Amino acid sequence: MTNISISASPRPRWEVIIPTVTLHLLALLAFLPSNFSWGAVGVAIFLHWITIGLGIALGFHRLASHRSLVVPKWLEYFFILCGSLAGQGAVIGWVGYHRIHHFYTDKNLDPHDSTKGLWWSHISWLMHEVPAKAELPRFTKDIADDKFYQFCHNYYIWLQLGLAILLYFLGGFSYVVWGIFVRLFVGFHCTCFVNSVCHKLGYRNYETDEFSTNCWWVALLTYGEGWHNNHHHCQSSAKNTVKWWEFDVTWLTISLLQFVGLATKVKGNSI
Fold first, then answer.
1. In this structure, is residue 247 part of a structural domain?
2. Strand-pair partners of 203
3. Which residues lie below 8 Å from residue 175, measured CB to CB, with a gap of 6+?
4. 239: closest CA among 57, 2, 89?
5. How far apart are CA 73 and CA 29, in angstroms?
6. Residue range of the domain that includes 179
7. CA 7 to CA 158: how far, in whole Å?
8. Among 38-42, 130-134, 192-196, which is the least confidently predicted range?
9. Rounded distance between C-alpha atoms, residue 155 and residue 148, angstroms
10. Is 260 within a domain?
11. What's the longest Cα–Cα distance across the chain?
12. Does a structural domain hold residue 248?
């Protein structure tokens, strides 16, 4: 195990803080009547599904982080591209930090340790240098040398800029406001709710050795990721649900892929 020193006052990451604050301010442009159109809202909702549903929940999380299923390489790369457009950081870091979270859940080396408070686990950890960063190479050996992962890791900001230009030509500035600024703001906090709310509020189907919970409204916002206690009980499973009323859109998507032969080795019934 890596020897890591833990600082009581982690260094602020201004390279993250400034863009994050800027994004939150830019999202306020949606309140201007001139920036509203139903087409722009529709684009934002569609891109939320593409980037958070297919990209983060399926691609970054269940596929890349946990290898809960196998898909053709071209399809895996499509999902990783979608996740990169979610604007939640570079893919290799995202996967690495998530794996570290499971290895050290709610302990000091957990990047978003929930025992440090709701604000820390929701967003503050992203804005500070966390000790877990030193562990990233150890937890990402399987993807670190993949050329496509490296491309998405290094150029995810440029990919976002390219999408913004495309949206501008499709529908003008309102499409950029809703399809980029509002969509990134909403998607960012939806995913952060899993790290924060789903270790504080909700119910538990399993008495795991950490504080993970199931929260229905987070599950709705994140295409099934809010059934977090179920996930921590069996992190390798592609299926996050236990009770009949726990709805997991990502599991339905994976089931469809399996039905048409695009997903194999699906770990879905082990919870």
1. no
2. 214
3. 37, 39, 40, 43, 167, 168
4. 57
5. 39
6. 14-212
7. 33
8. 130-134
9. 11
10. no
11. 55
12. no
pLDDT digits (tens, 9 = 90+) for 169-205: 999 999 999 999 999 999 999 999 999 999 999 999 9
254 occurs within a structural domain = no
Nearest to 21 by CA among 168, 127, 118: 127
**Cα 184 from Cα 213, distance rounded (Å):** 25
Report the DSSP beta bridge partners of residue 264: 70
- For the record, the structure tokens of 240 come out as 């996050």
CB 160 within 8 A of CB 180: yes
Reported pTM: 0.94
**Which amino acid is present at 28?**
L
User: Which tokens in the block code for residue 110?
Assistant: 């957990």
Q: What distance in Å separates the CA atoms of residue 264 and residue 268, rounded to the nearest whole number?
A: 11
Q: What is the mean pLDDT of the chain?
A: 95
* Counted domains in the chain: 1
First to last CA, the chain: 29
SS3 call for 254? helix
